[in-house]
Design brief:
The complex is a heterotrimer of chains A (about 220), B (about 260) and C (about 220).
Chain A (H helix, E strand, L loop, with lengths): L2 H40 L4 H16 L2 H11 L9 H27 L2 H9 L4 H31 L11 H12 L2 H32 L1
Helix pairs in contact in A: 1-2, 1-4, 1-7, 1-8, 2-4, 3-4, 4-6, 5-6, 6-8, 7-8
Chain B lengths: L7 E10 L2 E11 L4 E5 L6 H8 L7 E6 L2 E2 L6 H13 L1 E4 L11 H13 L3 H14 L15 H13 L5 E5 L7 H16 L3 E5 L3 H7 L2 E6 L2 E6 L1 H6 L4 H14 L1
Parallel strand pairs in B: 3-8, 3-9, 6-7, 7-8
Antiparallel strand pairs in B: 1-2, 1-4, 4-5, 9-10
Helix pairs in contact in B: 3-4, 3-5, 4-5, 5-6
Chain C lengths: L11 H35 L2 H15 L3 H14 L6 H27 L2 H9 L4 H16 L1 H14 L11 H12 L2 H29 L5
Helix pairs in contact in C: 1-2, 1-4, 1-7, 1-8, 3-4, 4-6, 4-7, 5-6, 7-9, 8-9
Classes of the chains: A mainly alpha (about 220), B alpha/beta (about 260), C mainly alpha (about 220).
Amino acid sequence: MDIELILKVYPYFLKAAVITVELSVLTIVLGLICGALGAASRLSRFAILRFIGAAYVSFFRGTPALIQLFLLYFGGPQIGIQLDAFQAGVIGLGVNIGAYMTETMRGAIVAVDRGQTEAARTLGLSKAQAFRKVTLPQALRLMIRPLGVNINAQIKGTALVSAISVVELTYTAQRYIGSTYKPFEMFFLAGVLYLIIITAVGKGVSFLDRKVRIQ
Amino acid sequence: MTETKSFVEIRHAQKSYGTLEVLKDISLNVERGQIVAIIGPSGSGKSTLLRAINDLDPLTGGEVWLDGVQVNKNLPHNQYEKHINQMRQDIGMVFQHFNLFPHLSVRDNVTMAPKLLKKISDKEADKLAEEQLDHVGMLERIDYYPAQLSGGQKQRVAIARALAMKPKLMLFDEATSALDPELVEEVNLVMKKLAQEHMTMIIVTHEMDFAASVCDRVLFMDKGVVVEEGPPEQVFKNPTQERTRNFLRKHLEGAK
Amino acid sequence: MGLDFSVIPPFYGTLLLGVLWTIAITAASALLSFFGGILLAVIALYAPAIIRLPVRFIAWLFMGTPLLLQLFLIYFGLVQIGIDLPAFVAGVIGLGFHFAVYNSELIQTAMLAVDKGQMEAARTLGLSRRQALVKVVVPQAVRDVLPPIGNNMIALLKDSALVSVIGVSELTLSAQRAIGQTYRAFEFYAAAAVLYYIINLGMEAVIRWFENRNRLYR
């Protein structure tokens, strides 16, 4: 292993890691919003909303994220959507992971025992009140762990924006693999940074999970 | 090495887990065609003793011999594995929870081991499966899967599976304990049939009536030792030991 | 520049070829990931530490880093140590190994969940430990996790788009080639999306058929 080379290039990797973290945070936030909206429409009383929700999930989970990203970034201008690579990356990947999160959230809500709603309704709570006060708090607990899986996947998924030239970790690694012909060193460097980010987020998720489980 | 005289010989069997001694110097001889029942309270070591015979629970001391060959021979690891796999082909075992292979049909449950270990052809295997399943009255379920059978049926298939290896000795580890009461009899009937065919059997059981009716000899075990041993009439009707009497009395009360 | 889908028909052949390559690379990688997953699971549970620990470490590394990065490593890394693989083979190895790691996690959990009595019963019949694993434990574990493995295979299909970056002429790269000639990104990426969607539906149908076929033993 060429330690000297690693020491020389690591500042560029650190800078790129910051971009990866930014991308991760923004796509995950957007994903959570899309997921919540998606889950709400899929569970809605209105057939049209249910249809829209199902179509959203079906399209974004049925096609590769890379194609969606290219469609938005390269195809967008043809239909009047002009985004820079970073913006396209955040929106493309955020909406994509939102489709997966829709299913996670919907699954958690559906998994809460029906008897819970019935018990709340017999106490005189309205449907909305029963959902807000009884179903949702329990569903939130159930969804932390599977959302953690979605988030973990998304952090690695940010690597896709290297294909539209956003200078994040994978792009940087690829660049340096090309110029130094040291693939193992560059993989090692980028890999360590990804693992740090993912491990940190994973710890955060399990901390949160433990906390709500005690309550 | 000393010569063996009996078909099955257990000599000074000893087994401990750390400081806990579960078998304390147990010896037992079983002649060819004999049927021996082992009874006793749970934790007495009776299942451990049975499972030591085919080395599922290896002894920490003592020897097990079958038909002139030592089962738990002291051999280097690789050779021992070969040796024990060979020995186990001669020792059939039936478990409390059947342990049928759920991913295989009844037929394949019976033929898997003979095909793999005795290299018999598919045709021979089919014939073997039909024979053995017919023997336990399960022929019409040959293409079912275990999940589609009742407990009693599963246990009969498990017996057929063991018999398909043509064992010299059959071990039954509480074969009817997990069954609903109305399913016990069908399994007992199969075991009685084996008895009439002079299969050598060692049976760990809770069923005193069954033990009394088919066995040549009964062993009462408690706390890792054989407390009393003899023909069923003697052990059940005129036990000489206080512990045996206590156990039998409690058991009778429990049964009522 | 508005939308004009009439640019697509001249490239039907290109796209169809891309579809075939996508199916080929998905099928080959899926097979590798399936059997690789079983092998990794057995290693993780039964191999001596000297083999187990390095394999576990590499698996951990592959679970914590992006597939795209791994593809670059395999494609360029193998060249560096003197192995010049065709892009297709490098792609299959990369995709296959990546998903083998995920499959192995599932299979390991399932293997541990197989009742201990199963191993005992097999050993009692005279099977060696290895024979018992192959004939009894692994088949049950694998059948128990077919649905989640199926989900992994669907994910694999979508991730096969990534091998376009190392130059495998699958559907994504075919679309890019067409775009290179026509400058019609939206039309061709949309066409690719539709085609992926159709392959996806087909694959889901195959997986469901396969799962149903294996339900009998439960």
